Amino acid sequence: MELITENLPAAFGLLLGEAVSRLVDDHDQSLDKRAAMLRVETPKFSQSDGKMCFEFRMRPGRKLPYLVNLEIEPDVDEDDGDAIESPLDLSLRASVNCACAEFERAESRRDGRGRCSCTLAVAWWVHEQISRRNSEEVLLFLSDLKTDTVAAGRDVVSQLLKLTDEAHAKEEDTTTRVQWRIKISNNQLYGPVSINPFVQRLKKNSKGWSKGRQTPAFDLLRRDGEGTAVDSQIAALTSQPSSEMNREYYNLFQSVDLLVGHPNVAWDDASATPIEVSRGEISVALQPVEIDSLDDEERAGETQIERESDPAKRKTLYRVALQVPGIDIDINQCELVLGNLHPAQPVVLIAETNGNRLIIAALRDRRATRLISYLLKSDLHEVLVDDDAAHQLTMKIGQIGSLVRVDLPDQLAGPLEEIQAEMVLELRPRGGAGMFVRLSMFDSRLQDMMRPGEEPAIVPGITDQGPIRLVRDTKAERERAGEVIHRFQINQLAPEEPYGWVAQSDEQALDLLARLYDAGDEAPRMIWPEGETIRVRGEITPSALRVQIDDSKDWFGLSGTISVAGQEVNLEDLLTAVTERRALVRVGDREFAKISDGFRKRLEQLGDTLVADRGTLKVADAAVPAVQELLGTDVTLEVSARWSQVIENLDSLADYHPTKPESLDVDFRDYQLDGYRWLARLSRWGVGGILADDMGLGKTVQTLGVLVDRAAGGPTLVVAPTSVGENWVRETQRFAPQLNPVLYREGNRQQVIDAAGAGDLVIVSYQLVQRDAKRFAAKQWNTLVLDEAQFIKNAQTKTSRAIRDLEADWRIALSGTPLENHLGELWSLLRTISPGLLGSWDRFRNRFADPIERHKDPERRQSLARLVRPFILRRTKEKVLRELPPRTEITLQAHLSTEERAMYDEARVAALAELSGGDAKPGEHRMRTLAWLTKLRQLACHPRLVDRMWDKGSAKLSLLDSLVDELRDGEHRALIFSQFVKHLGLIRELLDERGIKYQYLDGATPAKERQRRVDAFQEGEGELFLISLKAGGTGLNLTAADYVIHLDPWWNPAVEDQATDRAHRIGQERPVTVYRLVASGTIEEQILEMHADKRELVAGVLDGTDRAAKMDTEDLIRLIKAGDR
């Protein structure tokens, strides 16, 4: 019989109250204080066997919860049996039972009545609920307390969905962000580096962010929704807990984590029970449970077999279970502790009270803490989820699954379908600059996007009809992802996570976006957060550019703006974007425009001609025609009157074809007339240039032609090597007798400078112009001529600086080798001859030298060639002197004797041993390397150059001796070059011993004596002419020789070519044969290999071929190592 029925007496509520009141009175008053401190939650209510039962769950602090039962039943004497036949005869009594230790102690007393503060607290609670209600209200109250497991299930699902939405809402909040500020100092108290978070808030109308409020990193972690996962990690690493208690709190959980797998861990109980500590992932599972679908009346009369054999009379509900591997978490059977390894990583400790396991489970996401905490505090045994609630849960399975793993039974997970995912790029702007990049798999049926190739192979999905299971091909996903990463160079960005990167600057972000936009439909789809996209506002074309050109002293000032989507961008910013190879340029806040490919090329070339100086773009006079051409007619141009006049004058030069001056006593060859006219045009324009014809093509006579034209304007200063000065005097007297050449050597030098006037040519050596720099700088020269201008190829020398300080209306350089080793030489020449054309060294190095020499950039090489082409005229003998006799080059191998080889190899090994040490400074290391290279080269020529006591001869000297015999037999005459004067001395000994006549010239030979010996050889005195390479390689005319012998190869082939051209030049009527004597198996062979590279350097810039290189110390050491081959 149920105690609560329809015909209860009106005083039923009063009877209940009296029964409970008697129970309260049975408690000792000493329990009142403790009972008042206990929290009593709403109990479960049930009735059976004529009893009412209130089941309370007590949670005393951190202890394991336990049950307190209060039962009310009819008060019937045992002798009366079933005397109460109706509720009208009812009398009630109340009893209690509690699982706490206090109750057990009370029950063990003599009276046997168990009483405790818990039973008193629940008795008070029931008495209060009944005493304030009438009987009808009491019945309603008790009815509401009856356990409805399905309703409880709906409540649990509803709460889960609510907590999930709240967790994701925090992630989506974009009104705040964290900015990290770094300070570097040597403050020993706080350390050398401090990193502090500032919380910024989005301003109204999304117009930027607030300055930010500093927040302790530890407090940042305790606030939900502020900062990203990365911010949390940084905060965890940099935070200082607010108290020592907090620090100890984290240390405890970290210690438990370190005990995972430890072989000797036990419970701290009387038996020291051994336990296993392990890690596991916490998950939520829906477990199917079958129950009867009919109530008891409908089931009346059915047998158990009949009930189970009719599926229609049964239905499936689902029990919610919290699990770790191997354990269904039962709050009645497990002790649970929610804590943190560190502020950003929450964990749950699960201990089996009757088992021997302790599991530490880290949560997937800090945002899942509230959701897990709710489930840990809920008694899920009395919870069943019906189909409707289960459907609500599965429709949000993706969002829940991002917080905690969810396991569904097959009937809820849905059917298997093949995934139809596309590869997408999730892009999100970073605070300040750059953007986050994540490569993901997208399918509209997925709740969240996935990383390519990551397990599991079957993932949950959602359709309008319900959940499904999507089957993936993870291997194919990884392959597709690899193709995308490689094609769009995403891996050049800084990695942040699997398939996640960071473009750390706007430039990096824009480069990636440009590659994606260029690929069109072949690029993965880009997905931006709402309102945070980086917009590309179309294409920049020349018609959008407006340029203004103004006058300034010695320069033209150029400025410009470009208009895109209502925004204006400075021309300088546009040129910077092009220089940095950025495809997009900023036109507004997170708004950019793409520079059209055709316009990009023009802008790059325009940037080559402009020099940025303190926010101003400058144009040198020499660059005016290039700038005018590059701007073209499709750019809006506003120019000054002087610019227009310069352009008009330049246009007139196209029709300027001067004839040879009548007073110039020479018959120009066609190419020489072209060279003279080129010089004359530069002279009229007022810009300098370099006449870079091959040796022997008549650079001097072409220059004399323009000097005659300019004679009336004032004095000319000719700077030339000492050996060439006399030649200038002779050729001026011969071809331009109206000019007055004066050598600046002896006598009253100041008078020479002071007296110089119209028609005068003051001829001075590079050494003297540097020594008397102030004298020459004080004079205004009408024309400055630099012959053999490669003497100033090093811009840092005193000579170069002295020549740059000279005041001259017009400058011209003559050099058959304006570029020998590296582009810095060309820059130095043009800096002197045409200041401003190439800008500063840093600018030239960044724009040209490094890209060409280090990166072999053909576009930069072509741009440089295009820029300097108007100011350099270079013709080779092969192109313009068809009548010049042929030149044959032959390399002869000298095979070292056994003794020579041993000495050479010993030196090479010693060199490598010394240079392998890393203790020397870079400059000192280079000097040691060069010293060893020189020693090896000398040993390859003759061991006596290194060891004075050597008396065993030389393979190379023997080879030369036999070669001289052959030449004499054929009545040939030869020039013999060596850079080692001592080597020439050994040859002189050999020739003197054999009585062979020769001429000799080195750096110590006085100028007048040099010319006398040259003239003597030209007139037939001597069969051989021994010449030091540096002293006699330029400025000499020795066409009496038809053979040239190079005893030792020099680093630069241009120097050898100059020396060879002493014989192979205008006036030579016989074929010229060039012999190079090379010691086999020595460094000389590697030097010859370098010659090809050096020649390519010249051709690459001056003639438009391909390659340039500059040797560093490591390159030189590799030459020594090459002997190992």
Topology:
Blueprint: H1 12-25, H2 32-36, E1 44-48, E2 51-58, E3 66-74, E4 92-98, H3 101-107, H4 117-131, H5 135-145, H6 149-172, E5 176-184, E6 193-201, E7 213-214, H7 217-221, H8 229-238, H9 244-258, E8 265-266, E9 274-279, E10 283-292, H10 296-299, H11 304-308, E11 314-324, E12 327-328, E13 334-342, E14 345-352, E15 357-362, H12 369-377, E16 384-385, H13 387-395, H14 397-401, E17 405-407, H15 410-413, E18 416-418, E19 422-429, E20 435-442, E21 458-463, E22 466-471, H16 474-487, E23 494-497, E24 500-503, H17 506-519, E25 525-527, E26 535-540, E27 545-552, E28 555-564, E29 567-570, H18 571-579, E30 584-588, E31 591-595, H19 597-609, E32 610-613, E33 616-619, H20 624-631, E34 636-638, H21 641-653, H22 670-685, E35 689-691, H23 699-710, E36 716-719, H24 722-735, E37 740-743, H25 749-755, E38 760-764, H26 766-771, H27 773-777, E39 780-787, H28 798-804, E40 807-814, H29 823-833, H30 841-853, H31 858-868, E41 872-873, H32 877-880, E42 887-894, H33 898-915, H34 922-941, H35 955-969, E43 974-978, H36 981-994, E44 998-1001, ...
Parallel strand pairs: 9-15, 10-17, 18-22, 19-25, 26-31, 27-34, 35-40, 35-41, 36-38, 36-39, 37-38, 39-40, 42-47, 43-45, 43-46, 44-45, 46-47
Antiparallel strand pairs: 1-2, 2-3, 3-4, 5-6, 6-7, 8-9, 10-11, 11-12, 11-16, 13-14, 14-15, 19-20, 20-24, 21-22, 23-24, 27-28, 28-29, 28-33, 30-31, 32-33
Helix pairs in contact: 1-4, 6-12, 6-13, 18-19, 19-20, 22-23, 30-31, 31-40, 33-34, 34-41
